[in-house]
């Protein structure tokens, strides 16, 4: 299969500018695809996924043994979104789950385990349930909307950085939402965290990739003139690689395993930034910025 053909199997939501670039590139390389053919292939793939999602929705509904529970599904950005509705007398409750596209091929037993999990019933084979959840990345939709985040930075433009890194190192495949987020630490009591962990930059969450909503959050600590651009780029790229490995390599891959390291090492300043983040002087600078932000 050609490179361009593989691209359109993986890239479901089509950006027209990238689409035009890809078919021009294919013609230059002699792949022989016409623009109309490429557009038809991508649209056909999207229609197929929508159809498969609807069929799987009917399968799940037929397996629900509770008439007070309903389920609807939607294909969203390489994920399948599940919306479960529970009619409990006067009140109606609902919850959302996200899963990878692979779940469309789940067998009846795997689906039944996931439904038991959603309905909070006792599952006898819990070890198998954990395997199925990990296999299909079946998780409750995150509550990122409850956190304080924003798009426009005061010093750095995250989207410009994201686009440059995406095109340079990750084949332009990523399309994650990207936000600045108010700084947090890894313990509820920030004073205790900064005291106990002392010179560990890891105590400050500089970046996060949320696999549940496929969103990247960068701490606003980095949106400061005292922070070098290469540090911001390295943190953004770190989270981008997490997204790439999860969406295009394996849902069950080690978060910082071989696949992650081989991709992250492509960034020239990766080792330099690692040493900088490990230095006491730079940590004190970040800690100072952090304390200014929370006042």
Please characterize this protein's 3D structure.
This protein is of the alpha+beta class and 295 residues long. It folds into three domains: 3-46, no CATH class; 60-141, no CATH class; 145-294, Metalloproteases ("zincins"), catalytic domain (Zincin-like), CATH 3.30.2010.10. Helix content is 49%, strand content 15%. It contains eleven helices and eight strands. It has helices spanning 3-10, 16-28, 35-63, 108-118, 126-136, 158-169, 190-197, 229-249, 258-264, 270-278, 280-294; strands at residues 69-76, 79-88, 91-100, 139-140, 149-150, 178-181, 207-210, 215-219. The strands form two sheets. Strands 1-2-3-4 form a four-stranded antiparallel beta sheet. It has a four-stranded mixed beta sheet with strand order 5-6-8-7, with helices on one face. Strand 7 (207-210) and strand 8 (215-219) form a beta hairpin. The longest helix is centred in the N-terminal third of the chain and has 29 residues, at 35-63. The model is unreliable at 1-41 and 187-199 (pLDDT under 50).
Largest sheet geometry: 4 strands, antiparallel
CATH superfamily of the largest domain: Metalloproteases ("zincins"), catalytic domain
What amount of the residues lies in strands? 15-25%
Mean pLDDT: 77
Shape: elongated
Fraction in helix: 40-55%
CATH class assignment of the largest domain: Alpha Beta
Structural class label: alpha+beta
How many helical elements?
11
What sequence of helices (H) and strands (E) makes up the elements? HHHEEEHHEEHEHEEHHHH
């Amino acid at each position: 299969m050609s490179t361009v053909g593989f691209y359109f199997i993986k890239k479901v939501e089509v950006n027209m500018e990238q689409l035009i670039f890809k078919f021009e590139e294919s013609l230059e390389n002699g792949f022989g695809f016409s623009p109309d053919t490429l557009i038809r292939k991508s649209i056909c793939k999207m229609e197929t996924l929508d159809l498969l999602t609807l069929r799987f929705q009917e399968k799940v509904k037929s397996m629900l043994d509770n008439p007070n529970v309903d389920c609807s599904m939607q294909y969203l950005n390489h994920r399948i979104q599940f919306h479960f509705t529970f009619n409990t007398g006067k009140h109606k409750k609902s919850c959302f789950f996200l899963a990878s596209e692979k779940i469309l091929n789940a067998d009846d037993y795997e689906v039944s385990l996931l439904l038991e999990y959603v309905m909070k019933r006792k599952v006898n084979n819990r070890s198998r349930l954990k395997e199925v959840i990990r296999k299909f990345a079946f998780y409750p939709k995150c509550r990122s909307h409850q956190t304080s985040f924003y798009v426009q930075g005061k010093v750095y433009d995250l989207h410009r950085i994201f686009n440059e890194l995406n095109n340079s190192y990750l084949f332009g495949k990523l399309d994650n939402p990207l936000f600045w987020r108010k700084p947090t630490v890894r313990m509820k009591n920030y004073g205790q965290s900064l005291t106990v962990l002392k010179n560990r930059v890891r105590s400050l969450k500089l970046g996060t990739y949320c696999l549940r909503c496929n969103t990247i959050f960068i701490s606003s600590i980095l949106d400061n003139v005292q922070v070098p651009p290469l540090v911001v780029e390295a943190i953004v790229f770190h989270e981008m690689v997490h997204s790439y490995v999860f969406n295009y390599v394996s849902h069950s891959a080690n978060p910082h395993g071989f696949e992650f390291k081989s991709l992250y090492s492509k960034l020239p300043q990766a080792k330099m930034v690692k040493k900088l983040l490990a230095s006491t002087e730079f940590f004190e600078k970040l800690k100072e910025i952090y304390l200014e932000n929370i006042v």
